[in-house]
Write a structure and sequence with these properties.
Layout: H1 4-24, H2 29-52, H3 54-60, H4 63-77, E1 81-86, E2 92-95, H5 97-103, H6 107-110, H7 122-134, E3 138-146, E4 152-164, E5 167-176, H8 178-200, E6 204-209, E7 214-217, H9 219-222, H10 227-230, E8 242-244, H11 257-264, E9 268-276, E10 283-292, E11 302-309, H12 311-333, E12 336-342, E13 347-350, H13 352-357, E14 365-368, H14 369-374, H15 381-392, E15 398-406, E16 412-423, E17 429-438, H16 440-460, H17 465-479, E18 484-491, E19 499-502, H18 508-514, E20 528-530, H19 540-549, E21 553-560, E22 566-574, H20 582-643, H21 645-662, H22 668-699, E23 705-708, H23 709-721, E24 728-731, E25 735-739, H24 741-758, E26 766-774, E27 777-784, H25 816-826, E28 831-835, E29 841-845, E30 851-852
Parallel strand pairs: 24-26
Antiparallel strand pairs: 1-2, 1-5, 3-4, 4-5, 6-7, 6-11, 8-9, 9-10, 10-11, 12-13, 12-17, 13-14, 15-16, 16-17, 18-19, 18-22, 20-21, 21-22, 23-25, 25-30, 26-27, 27-29, 28-29
Helix pairs in contact: 1-2, 3-4, 16-17, 16-20, 17-20, 21-22, 22-25, 23-24, 24-25
Length: about 850
């Protein structure tokens, strides 16, 4: 191991090479090699000087003085800033010229001063003092020192302990790194500013090395959840993620913007890529890259890339495009086009669709404003002027107006004009944009609806057919255009009937010519169209008539009723060649249906009138016959009542006399025969009375008055109870009704009498009158506990002479219930019965307008109480 000045010289050289080699860095190999060669040359020079001088010096100079001189020469020859400090105090023993220049002071002022005095910071002085006290060396200590002129310089200091002039000393090599330190500080400040700048950016910024690995990223990138998917294809990227270009096609790893910039060294601006995983929505990014190069290098050593999320914008753009497409399709579907006018301009823009709607070529065009306004129908011009004055005056921003404008075919069509005005900051209208749509068909449909309602109202109100057809002609003319003339032809029910023509706008001669159409024969079974009489086949019969009237086209639609019966025709004429379109046919056909309805109704009304007249004649005839028959029946009834009663009275009288005067002379058989004669004549008289009463019920007029059924029923029950003293009759509260008092009394008399008669064998006979619910309404019921009958024969009871029991067992004529049924029906009610053999019967009847006294109880069959 080298010691003394030689070892110190070598140590100083090494101390010089190490910090410089570290500062140059490992990448500059050529510069490292050159520096190593220079340091080796310096070391060789020092050794050579050392080998030449030591022996001679030691011999020529006394030991102390010779040793100092040799050491001084060695240190002085080193081209580095070196000073020698005594141990352990640190006083400077020697400083070479390079050190004197570095300190900026004379050598004399340096010697004897402590090394720590030059330190600008206290902790550096303490650190040097510790190194001197321990006698240990140190390497690459950077510290600031203050020069005599006050400037602070940064030094990189290395120290090696050794002997100097026979004393323990510390050889200190100083390297001025002020420029490097300033550059390092500038770099740190620049890096700090770069980090602050990156942190302030809203975009996600990433720094990649030459292998596309992430070196650093800003705060926005650190908090970004989708950045890993954007690294698909790069080292560390997600394998599940996929990249796509702007058109949605798969993107290879080599086409990633970072890889492209590393490959060709070119920056990229706002490259749009898509990234996503299976089953997740696509995210769209804008990528901008900037490659970084070392001086003179052809390939970048790093790439800076910024990412911006465009998903919302692209989705909005796509939604906008879709909306625009839908709007365009909607405009086409609504038969509308666009128009734009800049305030102050003499022209307005008309879209291709609007040009097509107005009958011009399909391309968009500039249209003079005056031509557009001149095409508005004169009747709609005031409305247009008022709307534009309001719009330009700031009244409203949105407008909508229906008006008629000239079409390319020189006719006026209905259009819907609507839009919005755009205003500047002062409120002045600068631009008007709107849509214009052809609504002619809708307006015609509205006209047809109004015409239908008007015609149907006229027909329903019974307006004469001529008025209906005249109004129909006027409505059809307004529905088509001003060049049309309309006639309505109606024919009679038979071929012999004449044809009526209603044509408000045509001459009498032309109306007469129209009557020659083959209507009564039904030959006009399909529409007749003569678009131009000069070239139409079969128009010879109508050419002259059309020419005299100044007409050029004819369209005749047959009017036919049910079964194809010819009713007439609707004839439409035009002053110019014309052929009806599909919409014309559909619209006019609706009015043709109305015309057919009107004619059929008129025919039907006429037939009804004729039928009514015939029926009235027949009714009058039948009434006369009926009155004659009634009169004859009344005469017959009187004759019966008079002619039959006289013999019966004679039979009864003689039988009575025979009983009084000759009964003793008769045997039992004779007396029995006499009694049978008396009973038969009495029954015959009762039968005649019932028949007459039954017939009168259908002829006599009813006397309407308020009848209290409670009082009436109790009165009848009291009279009949005398004949059946053991019977018990209860009458519950009944109610009021408007009817014939005598007839209703007959009803109660017959029903209560029947109940008493058929309950005579009961012990005791029990009769009940009450009100019950029947078929949802109140019914008056009479119940008994008599013999009853089989309900299968209930319908027969209300016929004349119908009986369930023999006259010997229960006397009667079989007419009473028939009388009840007729009276109840004349009062707007009906009668019914419920019965069973041996369990009595319940007769119920309803009356129109009957109001019960008490709320209705249960249905028929429940027990009632009363007096």
């Amino acid at each position: 191991m080298l010691r003394g000045p030689s070892g110190a010289a070598l140590g100083c050289v090494c101390a010089l090479w190490l910090p410089a080699a570290w500062w140059i860095g490992p990448d500059a190999l050529l510069l490292q090699a050159a520096w190593a060669i220079w340091c080796a040359a310096c070391a060789a020079l020092l050794l050579r000087v050392h080998r030449r001088t030591p022996v001679a010096t030691q011999e020529e100079v006394p030991a102390p003085a010779g040793a100092d001189s040799a050491d001084h020469d060695i240190v002085q020859a080193i081209p580095l800033s070196i000073c020698v400090c005594a141990l352990p105090g640190g006083e400077i023993l020697f400083a070479n010229d390079a050190m004197v220049d570095l300190a900026g002071e004379p050598r004399g002022s340096l010697l004897g001063r402590a090394l720590g005095e030059f330190c600008a910071q206290t902790h550096d002085r303490e650190r040097l003092g510790l190194a001197l006290a321990t006698g240990h060396g140190f390497d690459d200590v950077e510290l600031p020192v203050r020069r005599a002129d006050g400037n602070v310089r940064w030094l990189s200091v290395c120290g090696r302990p050794d002997e100097f002039a026979g004393r323990a000393a510390l050889f200190v090599v100083c390297h001025d790194v002020t420029v490097h330190k300033q550059a390092q500080r500038s770099l740190i400040a620049s890096e700090e500013r770069f980090r602050v700048l990156l942190g302030a950016l809203s975009e996600s910024v990433v720094l990649y090395d030459a292998q596309a690995k992430v070196l650093t990223r800003n705060r926005a990138a650190e908090g970004c959840t989708w950045l890993d998917d954007a690294h698909a294809g790069l080292p560390g990227g997600h394998d599940e993620a996929r990249l796509f270009d702007e058109q949605g096609r798969a993107l290879s790893n080599a086409r990633h913007p970072v890889m492209r910039s590393l490959s060709d060294g070119q920056p990229l601006r706002e490259v749009v890529i898509g990234t996503g995983r299976a089953g997740s929505p696509m995210r769209w990014l804008s990528v901008t890259t900037q490659p970084l190069f070392h001086a003179g290098a052809s390939r970048p050593y790093a790439v800076v890339a910024s990412y911006s999320d465009l998903t919302a914008r692209i989705r909005a753009e796509r939604a906008l495009r879709a909306s625009e497409q839908r709007y365009a399709l909607a405009l086409r579907g609504m038969n509308e086009g666009l128009a734009e006018w800049i305030n102050g301009s003499e022209e307005l823009y008309v879209s291709p669709r609007l040009s097509h709607i107005m009958g011009y070529d399909g391309g968009g065009r500039r249209m003079p404003v005056k031509d557009f306004v001149a095409g508005i129908h004169p009747a709609d011009k005031p409305g247009w002027d008022a709307m534009m004055d309001d719009l330009l005056g700031g009244g409203h921003d949105v407008f909508q107006l229906e008006l008629r404008m000239r079409h390319a075919d020189s006719t006026h069509h209905w259009f819907m004009v609507r839009g919005v005005a755009q205003r500047d900051a002062t409120g002045r209208s600068t631009r008007v944009v709107g849509t214009i749509g052809d609504i002619s068909l809708r307006k015609r449909l509205e006209q047809v609806d109004l015409a239908e309602r008007e015609l149907l109202a006229r027909i329903a109100s019974g307006v004469p057919l001529a008025d209906v057809t005249s109004r129909l002609a006027v409505l059809v003319e307004g529905l088509l255009n001003e060049d049309s003339r309309v006639a309505v032809l109606t024919c009679g029910a038979s071929a012999a009937d004449s044809v009526d023509v209603v044509a408000p706008g045509l001459s009498a001669a032309f109306r007469a010519a129209l009557t020659r159409l083959p209507l009564p024969s039904g030959a006009l079974s399909s529409p007749l169209v003569i678009a131009d009489p000069d070239g139409a086949p079969g128009a010879d019969a109508h050419r002259s008539a059309l020419a005299e009237e100044g007409l050029r086209a004819l369209w005749a639609l047959p009017l036919a009723g049910q079964g194809g019966i010819a009713l007439g025709a609707l004839v439409i004429c035009h002053r110019r060649p014309w052929r009806p379109g599909r919409s014309d046919e559909n619209l006019v056909q609706r009015l043709v249906d109305i015309a057919q309805l009107a004619i059929e109704r008129a025919r039907g009304e006429r037939q009804v009138r004729e039928l009514n007249e015939s029926l009235e004649r027949r009714v009058a005839e039948r009434t006369a016959l009926l009155e004659q028959a009634n009169n004859e029946l009344e005469a017959f009834s009187y004759s019966v009542s008079h002619d039959l009663r006289s013999p019966l009275r004679a039979i009864n009288g003689f039988a009575h006399l025979l009983t009084e005067h000759a009964a003793a002379t008769l045997d039992d058989e004779g007396r029995d025969m006499l009694q049978r004669i008396q009973r038969g004549s009495n029954r015959m008289g009762q039968l005649i009375d019932d028949i007459l009463r039954f017939s009168r019920m259908a002829r006599i007029d009813m006397a309407h008055a308020e009848v209290g059924l409670d009082k009436l029923a109790r009165s009848v029950a009291a009279e009949l109870r005398e004949q059946y003293p053991v019977a018990r009759i209860t009458v519950a509260p009944l109610g009021q009704v408007s009817g014939d008092h005598a007839m209703l009394r007959q009803v109660f008399a017959n029903l209560i009498g029947n109940a008493l008669k058929f309950s005579v064998h009961a012990e005791p006979p029990l009769i009940e009158l009450f009100v019950a619910l029947q078929d949802g309404g109140p019914a008056i019921c009479v119940r008994d506990n008599g013999v009853g009958f089989d309900p299968l024969y209930a319908d027969r009871l209300f016929g004349v002479f119908q009986r369930m029991h023999g006259a010997e067992e229960f006397p009667g004529t079989g007419v009473g219930l028939a009388i009840v049924k007729r009276i109840v029906e004349r009062h707007g009610g009906r009668v019914s019965v419920q019965a069973a053999p041996g369990k009595g019967a319940t007769f119920c009847f309803t009356l129109r307008g009957f109001v019960p006294t008490e709320p209705l109880g249960g249905p028929v069959g429940e027990t009632r109480t009363g007096t």
